[in-house]
Amino acid sequence: MTASDEQESAPLLEAAPAHSRPRKSSYSTLPCDRQRCTKACTHGSLSDPGYGAADTVHNLKRDFLINGCGAGGGGGGGSGDGTPPRADSPRLGMRPDRLVYSWCDMNAFVTGEERGQRWWRRLRPGRAAEARDAENGAGRPAHPVKHILKGVNGTAYPGELLAIMGASGAGKTTLLNALMFRSPSNVSVSGQRAVNGFPVTSNALTALSAYVQQDDLFIGTLTVKEHLTFQALVRMDRNIPYEQRMRRVQEVITELALTKCQHTIIGVPGRIKGISGGEMKRLSFASEVLTDPPLMFCDEPTSGLDSFMAQNVVLVLKNMALKGKTVVCTIHQPSSEVFALFDKILLMAEGRVAYLGTPEGACNFFKEMGASCPSNYNPADFFIQLLAVVPTREEACKQTIELVCDAFQRSEEGLRLAAEVENVADTQVKAVMAGGLWGENPWQTADASCSPYKASWIAQFRAVFWRSWLSVLKEPILIRVRMLQTLMVSLMIGIIYFGQELNQDGVMNINGALFIFLTNMTFQNVFAVISVFCSELPVFMREHFNGMYRTDIYFICKTMAEIPIFIAIPVLFTSISYYLVGFNPSVDRFFVATAIVMLVANVATSFGYLISCVSTSVTMALSIGPPVVIPFLLFGGFFLNTGSVPEYFTWLSYLSWFRYGNEALLINQWSGIDHIDCMDSNSTCPRNGQVILETLSFSENDFTMDICSLFGLIAGFRFLAFLALLVRTLRSD
Ligand SMILES: Nc1ncnc2c1ncn2[C@@H]1O[C@H](COP(=O)(O)OP(=O)(O)OP(=O)(O)O)[C@@H](O)[C@H]1O
């Protein structure tokens, strides 16, 4: 590119002094090469003036080894005077308070592959080596579609509020997700992430940090206070007493101006009216601030808030920073007042770093490049506009961005930063090589044994069960709508099939009505589970990845809390319609029929869980649900005689709850019936119950087997659903 090209493509920079004029280079030729980055990043860039130099390194590392990874809360394992912890001390029992988080050479690619596909490709014989080689080369996946983070480096210090800024699509959220190990499954990330100079993994980071994500996800039937109480129960350190947790909940409610709506239902947009959008934003923020984490990440914490509330939220972040926390947030167009609260800013453009340093330094940097921020102009707006890609001038804007990013790497500030990082890294590498106190990485040694969960298994169980129970009670789809639905359908069936008699016509109608019982119980439950459980899954996923509770606990609690509903509905249904239709009048047969319908309802529920857990969205679950249920329905013995099932489908018929339910209900109905009125001498008229069962290829001897099979399917489908959920919640390190 010639000088004139540069001027044309970057009009804002035309006045830049010759010495600071950037030279064109690509991210792959960064001065900080891969090896150096690894060293610098993983061994720390602890050059913060407030912490500065070797003493700081020593102190932070000492805190680390004393306090370790924060699964617990109270006592640390060390003496606190810098001596290493005793061998028997709970070294990992308390989290350190001051953390330097650094990241180096972060690259992110959209792969066009979901996580499952990627695993499959790696597992395929002959492809594993190819995939590994490809992914090891500069972290570039084998089939990248788009490069969205390009060699991003940075450091966030305790006591500082670092704001990541940039135009829409610059890569802010992608960077934050990558820093938190929360990238979507179709995004492949590489790079080093380190806490106080030690490489950190997902579990360890989860235990130390909080992450306010851009979209607000809640169980909408809870009130604001119930939600925060639940958060306090599972997120605060395990040895904090209940009263103290509740005091903290109240504090946060006041701090974030949620007092007015603390007893209001959160709501589900478009379904249940609840608190306002701004209140929701503040609530998600409150949920994270509750635990007072040493490391805090917020993605657009102010979006949707008015300027006063936005400032309030940033003030809370600033106060956290002032207390020695490390706070990183992305922010879109902050007001001048909000901008003035930032200690450091990281400007991003097209997935690269355009500037990292103090806000004043940014003004000077751009001034030196010939693009000074006009007085009376919000510097944040100025930087974002300067680094935005305008649709009509795409090429020119991209060239400008490249020039700015290259210039930052070569600028005094950029070089000083790199040099400082390398100096500290060298000091630490020497210490590590000397086998000194800091020769061990607490994050790697901690990670295997370090749980990301703050609460014990029992405490998690109690809290999650409490919330699941509350949400079942308050979920209109589960209780009110389904009760009404059951009442209406059972009455309708009762009226349509009213008063059947034991004659030739009655046999057909009774068999039909029994099959309708099964069909209704199946579809009603499968869809109820899909619409409630499936739509709650994103909340579960986020909370699980936030280190709040385990997958098994969620699944067990959810299942247990819903059991009463899935018992009450079949009982109500059978009680209304059984005698209206005129089934076998013996009372014990009524109870057996109710129990069978109940079992079928629960198999359908388990199947609904399975469909929900293998689907990526409610829409997908609703689309795959009916087609998958149909084959099972066909093998029920009503539309196709059980004896006529093609051999190659026999295995599938063994999974059909319709088959077991239908056979059990028919045996319950017809066994012991010795006489059926036949109006004429028609040979197709069954003379007794035994003949009916034989005609359908059912046998009274199979009754116990049918009941056991229904129990087996309840357990089997539920176990598969749990496994599917478990696979979805595997953490990627
Ligand atoms: N999972 C994904 N699949 C495909 N493209 C993605 C994915 N995540 C991010 N991108 C793309 O990467 C680029 C950066 O996205 P990102 O969400 O990080 O931007 P941002 O700076 O946070 O924008 P905004 O301020 O609008 O939220 C965008 O072009 C976006 O379309």
TrEMBL record:
Q: Which residues form a coiled coil?
A: none
- Compartments it resides in: Membrane
Q: Which Gene3D superfamilies match?
A: P-loop containing nucleotide triphosphate hydrolases
Keywords of this entry: ATP-binding, Membrane, Nucleotide-binding, Pigment, Transmembrane, Transmembrane helix, Transport
Q: Which GO terms describe its molecular function?
A: ABC-type transporter activity; ATP binding; ATP hydrolysis activity; pigment binding
The record places domain ABC transporter at 129-375
What does the record say about its membrane topology?
Answer: Multi-pass membrane protein
Q: Which intervals of the chain are annotated as region Disordered? A: 1-30
Domain of life here?
A: Eukaryota
Would you tell me the protein name for this molecule?
Protein white
GO cellular component labels = cytoplasmic vesicle membrane; plasma membrane
Q: Which CDD domains match?
A: ABCG_EPDR
Query: Pfam family example for this protein?
Result: ABC_tran
Membrane-crossing segments per the record: 510-534, 555-578, 590-611, 618-640, 703-727
